[in-house]
Specification:
With 328 residues, this protein is of the alpha/beta class. It is built from eight helices and 14 strands. It has an eight-stranded mixed sheet, with helices on one face. It has a six-stranded parallel sheet with strand order 3-2-1-4-5-6, with helices on both faces. Strand 12 and strand 13 form a beta hairpin. Helix 1 packs across helix 7, helix 4 packs antiparallel against helix 8 and helix 6 packs across helix 8.
Length: 328
């Protein structure tokens, strides 16, 4: 019997439990070990449990580590794994700023260890199809993208309102929109503008961003942890209009004819892409394949893209006056 790929999971919170549920759907993978501050099993069914992250990183039976801790811990958690020779899939945002990411990528390169930011959106079937169609030119040239992602955070998500814990709308959910636009346009903006409504700690509750690109495209992104938004991506090209509900984990792409008048019936096609389980297994499978091929980085979520997005987030935060302890 062929040995299953063994995942280690750092962090015992919600996002880690979701990744674990995705792994449980994969016949070729298993959760070998999990580590959390409490050392308790929680919702993650692993073979072994550790209270120490270092113990997990040193477990010889673990093939790769998924890091689902809070943002400010990502840098030290990734470094811990890379220094011990463990491949890493780290939840977004991969670090608190580009300076931290530069150091981790240099370390991964020196040691020849696989390292990837866990931007699961890029691996969801509907998104892979959209990307292929954009690259081929089948959907036309992008002229405008409008993205929103907003939910009212409850008391169970108090960390989102605290600077020390890496809170704020932009880093927690706004990163999805910034990443999505960068992935589709594949160029750096030549203008960035924005504003943020912040709490007393200086954490952004709602952030609005405008970006203009050399190709002529422009992008608007709104993220919020204080209100519900459309949670949809709208893409307008020179040949059509495309709507992707819940764009970070979509199963539907709505294709419309350009609205050149007052047409009411413009829906050309509704394409549905069923998502197996919760969808986390797609990025996990891609990581396993890359590691089996002795790759240091992903073709779909390469280091240069994480660096580009992290740089944009730094620029947006500077414009909006969003500062964290890691920046000082």
């Amino acid at each position: 019997m062929e040995r299953k790929f063994s995942w280690g999971i750092m962090g015992g919170g919600f996002i880690s439990s979701q990744f674990a549920a995705g792994i449980e759907m994969m016949g070729e993978a298993e959760i070998g070990a999990a580590a959390s501050k409490s050392g308790k099993a929680g919702p993650i069914a692993a073979k072994r449990y550790y209270r120490s992250y270092e113990q997990l990183a040193e477990d010889p039976e673990i093939d790769a580590v998924y890091i689902g801790t809070i943002h400010p811990m990502h840098y030290e958690n990734v470094e811990c794994c890379l220094r011990r020779g463990k491949p890493v899939l780290c939840e977004k945002p991969v670090t608190m700023n580009r300076k931290e990411l530069d150091k981790l990528i240099k370390l991964a390169g020196e040691k020849g260890i696989f390292f990837m930011e866990a931007m699961w959106t890029r691996f969801i079937p509907a998104c892979t199809y959209l990307k292929e169609q954009i690259v081929s030119g089948a959907l036309g040239k992008i002229q405008h993208i409008q993205i929103s992602f907003g939910e009212r955070a409850g008391k169970e998500k108090e960390r989102l309102f605290q600077a020390e814990l890496g809170g704020g709308a932009l880093l927690d959910i706004g990163v999805y929109g910034v990443n999505f636009a960068q992935w589709l346009l594949e160029e750096a903006p030549d203008y960035i503008g924005g504003w943020a409504r912040k709490n007393e700690e200086g954490i952004d509750l709602t952030t609005f961003v405008q970006m203009q690109y050399p190709s002529g495209a422009d992008v608007e992104i709104t993220s919020s942890i204080e209100k519900k938004l459309w949670n949809t991506a709208f893409i307008i090209t020179d040949t059509g209009e495309y709507v992707i509900p819940y764009f970070w984990r979509p199963d539907t792409l709505l294709c419309y004819d350009l609205n050149n008048g007052f047409q009411t019936e413009r829906l050309r096609e509704k394409k549905v892409f069923p998502v197996r389980g919760n969808g986390y297994q797609y990025e996990a499978a891609a990581v396993q394949e890359a590691i089996a091929g002795k790759k240091k980085e992903s073709v779909i979520m390469p280091w240069k893209d994480s660096l580009a997005v992290m740089g944009l987030l730094d620029d947006i935060r500077r414009i909006c006056g969003i500062v964290y302890p890691q920046d000082l």
